[in-house]
Amino acid sequence: MNRKVSIIGAGNVGSSLALYLAEKDFADIVILDVVDGLPQGKALDISQSSPITDFNSQVSGTNDYKDTAGSDVVVITSGISRKPGMNRDELLEINAKIVSEVTHNSAKYSPDCIILVVTNPVDTMTYLAFKVSGFKPNRVMGLSGVLDGARLSCSIARKLRVPSGDVSTLVLGEHGKNMLIIPRLVTVRGEPITKLLPIETINQLIERTINGGAEIVSLLKTGSAFYAPAAAAARMIEAIIRDKKEVLPCAAYLQGEYGIEDTVIGVPVRLGKNGIEEIVELKLESDEKVALQDSARAVKQLIVSINLT
Question: Which CATH superfamily is domain 3-142 in?
Fold first, then answer.
């Protein structure tokens, strides 16, 4: 029997993710949206590309959560996207209501699923989904470091004129202004970036990564990033469905790891068929650990502001 992935939200991220997943050909895909005809039309369009790109995954669209029943993974992309001048925190109140309802319905019809949250502000929305679903922490996670790391890798590869696959990055902390990038953990062909670029250049690349989403919003003017976020989510889903045991950074609920309690924050985890199968604790320097804890406190303030605890 084929595995099943349901994507809640047929916007740019959701539809791009559906296409990426279909082309990977390891699961059937359901796209759900409240707008009548939107998920059905996008699902049909994706399906009609199958003879061209040669995949057999079944892609369907629906407005009814019953059609998502029995999903292995549910991806929450629903919510409003950022507009120019808007930061992730300003999305909080509106998207909290949306994510709460989506999580409730998804958990009702797929009580054994793993939930992946993409909606921003993602750390806080992941915490909300964890609380609303009642699932164990390993079954609820958020998109963060895979996307942020890709943005940093792209910038470094272009700067050094090397293939992006030669660049290894690790982004921790909040998916937003308080993310933590540790230069000594960023390498190119195994060589620390600190030996390849001056610190001024490294800091510029880090700053661009932190503002990566805002930069795209300012260019698009009427929307936000969707290709790279969808690709990052697809990689996480593949690690889960195919039980790859791959270590990837994602937003995870911490229970004392890194000295952080009852907060969702970006850390490296091992992803497999059970979701988060291990939270990998890196040996951080004292100042790095403090910076990560400061990032977690910023997320905690958002959590407290909408009374999720």
Answer: NAD(P)-binding Rossmann-like Domain (3.40.50.720)
